[in-house]
Amino acid sequence: MKNSIQHIQAFLAVARTGSFTKAANELHLSPSALTVQVQQLEDWLGVALLDRSPRHVSITAAGQAARGPMEKLLLDLDNIVTGSRDLAALRRGVVSLAALPSVCAGALPPALRLFRERFAGIEVRLHDLVAHRIHAQVREGAVDFGIGVRARLSHGLDFVPVLNDRLCAFVPLGHPLARHRQLTLEQLADQPIILTGRDSSVREQVDGLFDETRLTMNAGMEANYMSTVLALVRQGLGISVLPESAADSLEGLKRIHIDHPGVNREIGLISRSGMGLSPAARQCFDLLATELNVGGAVPRFDWPPRTF
Fold first, then answer.
1. Same domain, yes or no, for 178 and 153?
2. Which domain holds residue 160?
3. How many CB atoms lie within 10 A of CB 273?
């Protein structure tokens, strides 16, 4: 039945007021138009909802049984409309994203703080994951979008580049290499290198650098988290090769540029091809595309390096 919501509203108005005339005034309809709507609803349901007499209108047993579910139906519909309008206006909602740990510890928090300031009602759920898990989470729809590396990007995913977070060497302040402004892979190969876990994109890139140059890496200790790797470096247990944004603080550390083109890695926003984002996720995606692309939250080296 067409316009069934208006017909239900007509019946409920009569049931509430006990009068076709009062209900018609409330709904800004003529009494005859209201009567037609109620009759059409009764015909559609196949039962009489109202008992009519010249002086009185009462609700039938069938009308009493239908009244509660109809009122709930209208309330649920109103909640849906209100919720949809709030979401469209970005007053509330949820955004779920997955990002590399180095991005979560560096460039991302300032951008998310700006997003929260602009859209306080939208909840952001952040998952810090290694690269291949980010790809899987986005592809499966477990998150709205991700922030990861372009390398080995899976089919069915789109990539919008926003950062170039190159790898660099981290050494203890008292280390002999700390006096250098830049280092070669040959210089690094002579040192025990503390590595990230084998499932991380950083480890994959570091292994690839030494394989391509046919250098034997002096692998020292291994840890899953970059914060743990840096703590081990601070204790003089070795050096490490990590993204330049990896360290919240350089206390006890020296960060040194590596003179090799393969240290650059492109980071971008990853989304499912051909799939739209919710209004809240789209707003977050667009803001991050702008704010991360500025690069202000990620430290940069002077280049070319100064010589001493």
1. no
2. 93-164+266-294
3. 10
- Residue 178 in contact with residue 172, Cβ under 8 Å? yes
Inter-residue contact 278 to 144 (CB < 8 Å): yes
Q: Backbone phi, then psi, for 44, in 5-degree steps?
A: -65, -40
- The overall average pLDDT reported for the chain is 86
- Considering only CA atoms, which of 104, 252, 230, 232 is closest in space to residue 168? 230
Q: What is the pLDDT of residues 96-150, one digit of tens each?
A: 999 998 888 888 999 999 999 988 888 999 999 988 899 999 999 999 999 998 8
Q: How far is CA 210 from CA 18, 191, 273, 301, in A?
A: 85, 13, 34, 23
Give CA angle at 285 (299, 272), nearest 5°: 115
Q: Has residue 31 been placed in a domain?
A: yes
CB 166 within 8 A of CB 202: no
- 10 Å Cβ neighbour count for 235? 11
**What are the residues whose beta carbons fall under 8 Å from the beta carbon of 208, sequence distance 6 or more?**
262
Residue at 13 is within a domain: yes
Nearest-angstrom CA–CA distance, 97 and 143: 5
- CATH number at 181 reads 3.40.190.10
Q: Please report the sign of the dihedral spanned by the C-alpha atoms of residue 288, residue 289, residue 293, residue 299.
A: positive
Q: What's the total number of domains in the chain?
A: 3
Task: Give bridge partners of residue 147 from the DSSP assignment.
Answer: 99, 269
Identify the burial level of 303 via C-beta atoms within 10 angstroms of its C-beta, where 0-12 means exposed, 13-18 middle and 19 or more buried.
exposed
Is 299 contained in some domain?
A: no
My answer on whether omega of the bond before 304 falls inside 30° of 0, hence cis, is yes
